[in-house]
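Kindly review this record before class:
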Amino acid sequence: MEESHRWDDPLDRRSAREEKRHAANVRMRNSGIGLFIMGVLLLSQGVDGAANRLTPVGAMGILFIVVGTICFLWGWKLNQLEK
């Protein structure tokens, strides 16, 4: 008779948790890259060359760059800590 799957197997749950954590950290890192690229695009459209000033779109670009950089580095660091 086949033995059924043990739902309380601690080794199985731990590996599933580690895989989910790793996937979440990779998503955080990748979304940080996306935010950074979007910030660069917004910043490129948000500078008024004649007045040499930053428009609100450019300010949002800077915000996206900062948040994207933080997400990327945090996700990268968490992935490095798993190893």
Q: What stands out?
A: The first strand starts at residue 47 and ends at 48. Residues 10-45 form the longest helix (36 residues).
